[in-house]
Protein: Copper binding protein, plastocyanin/azurin family
Amino acid sequence: MPTRRRFLLRGLAATAALPLWVLAARAGGLAAAAPPATPRGAPPVRPAMGRLHEVEIKGFAFLPAALTIAAGDMVIFTNADLAPHTATSETGLFDSGRLGRGQSVRMSFATPGTYPYLCTLHPKMRGTITVA
Structure:
């Protein structure tokens, strides 16, 4: 009888914990990280080969607004605003997709050139990445 009681209590405890797990998942506590994005037309670059640079999206601006990097480097865009944002190439070479607060996306840049980008949700937000 004690074994059956223990079995039933464990089942009841697991059932009671299920709504808490669902709430944690919906709140983002169990969210998976976004996969790295690569600009279209550029060959993929292994992260270990280049440096990692950060662009913070905060106050409806890209910080820094202008960034110069070496070919093969990666840029991580992180949204620190309450509002959602994107980092989208003006020429269609890359698009971060919609980033919510606290979300990030990594993009590699292998081809030298200048890449102007903007937030498609707030078009006055603009930045430039120059790959030397």
User: Anything to note?
Assistant: The beta strands are 52-57, 62-63, 66-69, 73-79, 88-89, 104-109, 113-118, 126-131. The first strand starts at residue 52 and ends at 57. The first helix runs from residue 2 to 26.
